[in-house]
Amino acid sequence: MFYRPEDGHGLPHNPFNAIVTPRPIGWISTRGQDGSENLAPYSFFNAVAYTPPQVMFASTSTKPDRGDTKDSVANIRETGVFCVNIVEYAMRDAMNQTSGPWDRDTDEFALAGIARAECDTIACSRVAGAPANLECRLTEIVKLKGDSNFAVFGEVTGVHMRDDCLVDGIFDVLRFNPLSRMGYRDYTVVREKFELKRPGE
């Protein structure tokens, strides 16, 4: 099968997300200028640089009470900071609860019963029990082609790692099993890993 996206795929559901998979989930926490808290998952997310460490996530839809975007991007525009919380399998239901189309006054931490802690380098809450948190300062927001597509880039200014996830100096993902997004309503979980050495190593 071949199709041009501009012509449509002719399938019951869009296959694009099922092709680019699995995708890590950036559980983005933000705080508005008014002190309101927001927590929402984004699967268009990844690390993009080592030195300095940088990450990105993309928001691709709008909410009626946020104009051209959603709560996360709106809050980051106001404050210039955000936190990426890593999602473990055990937190899948709480993460999913925060993905709803809640209004801007909803505190998703409280809604989903998630314990929060204050970040160290930025004025923002983080998911207290997450395997890791990346505190970030905004570097740029890039408007992408499309009505409501924005890519948000941030420099990591602080890193939290849960002590039980460190094994002999290695951050061991098998200690918490990262959750990843697939296509449609599908997710997957990392339960095994293997090592490959690059040529010349």
TrEMBL record:
Residues 18-173 form the Flavin reductase like domain. Coiled coil: none annotated. One of its GO terms (molecular function) is FMN binding. This is Flavin reductase. It comes from Roseivivax isoporae LMG 25204.
